[in-house]
Fold:
Amino acid sequence: MDLRVEGLSHRYGDTVVLDDVTLDIPAGRIVCIVGPSGCGKSTLLRLIGGLERPEAGAVHQIGAPRATSLNPLTFVFQDFALLPWRSAAGNVSLVLEDHGGIDRDGIVADVLERTRLSEFRDALPRQLSGGMKQRVAIARALAVSPEVMLMDEPLSALDAQTRELLMDDLIDLWHRERFTAVYVTHNLAEAVRLGHRVVVLSRRPGRIREVVEIDTPLAERGAMEDVQRHLWDLMRDEARAADAELIDA
Ligand SMILES: Nc1ncnc2c1ncn2[C@@H]1O[C@H](COP(=O)(O)OP(=O)(O)OP(=O)(O)O)[C@@H](O)[C@H]1O
Ligand SMILES: [Mg+2]
Structure:
């Protein structure tokens, strides 16, 4: 299933947050969204996921979701959002509890295997590092067989080295499964490592400044400084302006 975001605009009160955003999310691709702080990245993701209704425009699903997809648009958040009293397996199975007629234990075992977490199935979140917690959150997202994963700064709570490890995991997973993702990040190195396409939003109200296609296969993304510099050139001035903006008290 592809997604097409068409002419999406949104405001909160008098604040226009997104202005006429149009973009395609093709199946099997990772589309990264970058842009200055507060430009509307998370809002865009919430609109795509149907958590909020846009003021104008629409998100079209092209091709119906597979019948086996329990939740076609599934979020992965920065803060993991695991229940502390449930094991890794328990956290994964939580999202399956509303669904009848499925082999819950089988699905949990399968996604833990696919995310290399089988031996941690009984661990509680407090026993796990931040990186492991986010791996469990990714396993939980995969458990519902999403068509598109909506990832809002999934690695931002992690230290630099753990981020590197998780990026490797995601690349590995993508090679095995060709999942589709909209991946919001303020970290250009992440966008350049993981994105088949990087959408650069302007400062609020978020408009599309440029869509940068990165053709280099994910496995060969070593020295991508040029692309990263180009992305930063597009963002630098606006990032500085957003940073200097006074917070409305
Ligand atoms: N529910 C809301 N009600 C009112 N204003 C909101 C709401 N959610 C977001 N905003 C405002 O909309 C703008 C865009 O917010 P959003 O969280 O989408 O930006 P972002 O690009 O994800 O920012 P960040 O880089 O900090 O994560 C900000 O000015 C924010 O304060
Ligand atoms: Mg955000």
